[in-house]
Automatic annotation (TrEMBL):
Keywords: Cell outer membrane, Membrane, Receptor, Signal, Transmembrane, Transmembrane beta strand, Transport. InterPro entries: CarboxyPept-like_regulatory, Plug_dom, Plug_dom_sf, TonB-dep_rcpt-like. The keyword Signal applies. GO terms for biological process: siderophore transmembrane transport. Residues 1-21 form the signal peptide. GO terms for cellular component: cell outer membrane. One of its GO terms (molecular function) is siderophore uptake transmembrane transporter activity. Belongs to the TonB-dependent receptor family. It is a multi-pass membrane protein. This is TonB-dependent receptor. It is found in: Cell outer membrane. Residues 118-221 form the TonB-dependent receptor plug domain.
Length: 290
């Protein structure tokens, strides 16, 4: 069995409009006044995201939206929001975040980008660290041990998720919120086109939250989140790579991803390669071997 290398290249030009543009800046701290570094500040309704530095400071240049709503996310704190409304002139907006008792993970598949703590709908979020440990060649096999999720196993290279007994066209597969639209929803002998090799997290939605994706998602929604659509400016180059080998089937797996940027240009490149042979088992596969 072989799965050919897949390579994707995405280039995003983040252009700003200097006309009537303003600057929004501020500081994110905890109740004790300590800066919260690495918090994500987003202008809702846009793809503009700023990360706080070691002093908790963030900054948006050339904000052209007349109505601005800011959302602040940090895994160890309860999210913060501030609706500035129609703004004129530069703005300074500070946030004080309250600590969360458990890890607070944002769910991007919902329309409001709420967190797990804020969401009242059944949702499961698999983080990047856990995903690297349970990752399998197919999406169905990767998620089969998730609560309420099973797999339509149709061979080592073809497996789709079953959510609450629903599969096929009743379960929608999306990548970064966009429908994958492959033939895996038609028959179980087709693999899901989207790979988890470059995923930063996987979200599984159940219940009424799936209605926003239409009647084709009555069983549930699986959202694969990756870096192919850059969410924030990157100065310089960052990336990751992984190499693994399995002895049971002589499986070789290599993946890598690089994101870089300069000025208003951000680019991303990722790819993976997987090659396996037949799986070895002790003894014979039948009672009376040929």
């Amino acid at each position: 069995m072989k799965m050919r290398s897949l390579l994707s290249l995405s280039i995003a030009a983040l252009l700003s409009t200097p006309v009537l543009a303003t600057t929004i800046s501020g500081k994110v701290t905890d109740p004790a006044g300590n800066p919260v570094a690495g918090a994500e500040v987003k202008i809702e309704g846009t793809r503009r995201v700023a990360m706080t530095d070691e002093n908790g400071v963030y900054r948006f240049e050339d904000v052209a939206q007349p109505h601005v709503h800011l959302h602040v996310f940090s895994p160890q704190f309860i999210h913060g929001d501030n609706d500035l409304g129609d703004i004129q002139g530069d703005q300074t907006v500070n946030f004080i975040l309250s600590p969360a008792s458990v890890e607070n993970i944002v769910v991007t598949a919902t329309a409001l980008n709420s967190s797990v703590l804020e969401s009242v709908t059944p949702v499961t979020v698999i983080s990047a660290d856990k995903l690297r440990k349970i990752e399998a060649p197919t999406l169905g096999e990767t998620l089969k041990n998730t609560a309420g999720v099973h797999s339509t196993y149709f061979g080592p290279v073809s497996s789709s998720p079953i959510i609450r007994g629903n599969d096929g066209p009743r379960v929608k597969i999306v990548q970064n919120g966009l429908d994958v639209s492959d033939v895996s929803r038609v028959g179980p002998d087709h693999n899901v086109a989207s790979s988890t090799a470059s995923a930063t997290q996987i979200e599984v939605l159940r219940g009424p939250a799936t209605l926003q994706y239409g009647s084709g998602a009555i069983g549930g929604v699986v959202n694969i989140v990756d870096k192919r659509i850059p969410q924030y400016h990157v100065d310089g180059v960052e990336g990751e790579a992984e190499v693994s080998y399995s002895t049971v089937n002589e499986g070789k797996y290599t993946r890598g991803g690089v994101t870089g940027g300069s000025g208003n240009i951000v680019w991303h490149l990722d790819g993976y390669y997987r090659d396996t042979e037949n799986a070895d088992i002790p003894g014979y596969a039948s009672v009376d071997p040929d």
